[in-house]
Sequence to fold (262 residues):
Amino acid sequence: MVARYLPWVTIRKWTSTRAHRSRAEPEQLVLFKAHGGKRRNAGRKAKGGRAGSPHAARPVLKARYPVHVTLRAVDAVGSLRRRVTYQAIREATLTTARRENFRIVHLSIQRTHMHLIVEADDEVALAAGMQGFQISAAKHLNAAISKGRPGRRRRGAVFPDRYHAQIIKSPHQARHTLRYVLGNWRRHQEDQVAPMSSWTIDWFSSAAMFPDWQEYGDEEFLWRGPDTYDPLLVYRPRTWLLREGWKKTGSISYRDVPKATR
Fold:
């Protein structure tokens, strides 16, 4: 039996198959094939048309409360929902997994931003863990989008503003956040674009690692990704809210289209 503190990536139990995708699919949607630098000007006001989280002191965080984090990327990076950017972000989850006081439980990659559900021992661990993830992700993303392009490697900022963090304190809020993050692709209507319209769950997320889909029943991990699919490295939750608490307010279906967070 896998210890609950080990990463989900060690669990590779799959019980069904999916049809192979055509090689004629656009590059952005062909996700998986066989096989930034430190942020500058930290603390300055974000540039661009959309302001992010204000530079205020982070609230006190207790280890029993998970956190919903939203992290936006600059336009120059392009869509994050590509094979090369997925692999770059996955590398950042591998780096972050070495931390003991900060854990990524779920991750959803959208075109312009990411949603994370994380656990941290306190607000200091949260800040350090997110900083480490952003530095690693920026480094790998800049390398990925520069590969094959003429000229110098891109070294600009990837995450120009502070992340938005919302502490989860109740079972209802925990269920709402899980449903929102794992189903975020349906909220952005990504499920209406081929070939994603044929997907049951979003393979640009950790949805395959979620063992409590309503449709599973007594079985786990019924959906198998492409043969070359490398899952994001996420952890089994330690907090009661993400393990059992959220179940007190209902189930979660892969068909759900989440509403906006509150």
Summary: Residues 132 and 262 are 27 Å apart (CA to CA). The chain has a mean pLDDT of 81. The helical segments are 83-96, 123-146, 171-182, 184-187, 240-243. The first strand starts at residue 67 and ends at 72.
